[in-house]
Write a structure and sequence with these properties.
Distance between the termini: 29 Å
Largest sheet: 8 strands, mixed, barrel
CATH superfamily: Glycosidases
CATH class: Alpha Beta
Strand content: 15-25%
Shape: globular
Order of helices and strands: EHEEHEHEHEHEEEH
Oligomer: single chain
CATH architecture: Alpha-Beta Barrel
Number of strands: 9
């Protein structure tokens, strides 16, 4: 079992060595939001996670009303500008807003973004979402991507799993003072979930 956190510029400066000493084994940091926005703390967080020897991940906040191909290119460019991916690094799509679109359109956007990121970076993205959003059909066709489920209303390690998934990979079980996550396996098992089948 691995404990993790996820952060953005909302947390300001993150003391990565302190988190590592406290038992955190993995972390995700926001890299991008939509087609232009870049988290101003991303590069510092990316370096800090690596220096603290955490399994590190980067995530993108999806804006389904925008172009998924351009959003994927922007995300990949920001990752590369921060030094790129090392073996075992992870990426994720934060899919929690529909931008007023129909579920089929949201799901199509997410599938295209994941496909493009797989092409650009050679990894399989996780998908972070929440139960009601996924049950509404916004995640159709994403079952091959590991599920990072936001479920702070559920006991740690016991999230409800929405369709199209049958199992969860990461449970975000708390939001304060930082988002807290759990992976029910080893560092090697977590890193392997990002493997992109060619």
């Amino acid at each position: 079992m691995l404990l993790g956190i996820d952060v953005s510029d909302w947390q300001g400066a993150v003391d990565w060595p302190e988190h590592a000493e406290a038992g955190v084994g993995f972390a995700f940091a926001r890299a991008t939001d939509g087609v232009e926005s870049t988290d101003p703390c991303f590069t510092r967080n990316w370096d800090g996670m690596g220096e603290s020897r955490l399994v590190r991940g980067a995530y993108h906040v999806a804006r389904p009303a925008g172009d998924p191909v351009e959003q994927a290119r922007h995300f990949a460019a920001v990752i590369r500008s921060a030094g790129g991916l090392s073996p075992g690094d992870l990426v994720a799509l934060d899919l929690e807003s529909d931008d007023g679109l129909r579920p089929q359109q949201v799901a199509r956007h997410a599938r295209r973004w994941c496909h493009q990121v797989g092409r650009h970076l050679g990894v399989r993205p996780f998908v972070r979402t929440f139960h009601a959003f996924a049950r509404g059909g916004n995640c159709a066709g994403l079952a091959e991507h590991p599920l990072w489920i936001s479920g702070p209303d559920r006991p740690r390690g016991r999230p409800a799993v929405p369709p199209p998934w049958r199992a969860w990979a990461i449970h975000q079980y708390a939001h304060s003072p930082v988002d807290l996550d759990l992976f029910p396996g080893s560092r090697e098992e977590l890193a392997s979930l990002g493997f992109h089948p060619r």
